[in-house]
Amino acid sequence: MQLREMELDLVRILQKDARISTEDLGKMLQVPAKEIEEAVVKLEKANVLVRYSSIVDWSKVEGHEGVTAMIDVKVAPKRGVGFDEVAHRIYRYKEVKSVYLMSGAYDLSVTVEGRSMHEVATFVSEKLSTLDSVLSTTTHFQLKKYKHDGTIFGDHGEDRRIVVSP
Q1: Please, are residues 37 and 7 in contact by the beta-carbon 8 Å criterion?
Q2: How many CB atoms lie within 10 A of CB 9?
Q3: Contact at 8 Å (CB) between 114 and 123?
Q4: pLDDT tens by residue, the chain, 166 residues
């Protein structure tokens, strides 16, 4: 889909902060708020804007810290469907937060969240590694989050965000 310059700028701004009002977006982009509303609807219908989300620092919520693991997965691709079939099977599990096809030493990068290391390990041993196409896995447990999607985490006494110009 070809986007106009204003629509590209709108997507870049919303990617950084989706809570900005249409009035403020209109001022920033020097177009009427109505045009912003129409552009957002168009981008949502075209699945360019797929979802709006918040970044939560769960380490600050007592009893909800959880565990995140990044799993390198080597796969035997199937003729005619490549990696798509096994990726589809993997991303349907509720524990899986993301799946990416990668270049390099492994084929898929899978991010999994659980309540404990044991829960993640059980997912890997009983669900992920038992899939026919999966040849091997390497699990990396996230120990500390420093930065995620441009937001710096930590005890800085304030919300510190990185602002990147488009």
Answers
A1: no
A2: 18
A3: yes
A4: 899 999 999 999 998 889 999 999 999 999 999 999 999 999 999 999 998 888 777 777 777 778 999 999 999 998 898 999 999 999 999 999 999 999 999 999 999 999 899 999 999 999 999 999 999 999 999 998 888 888 888 765 554 454 555 5
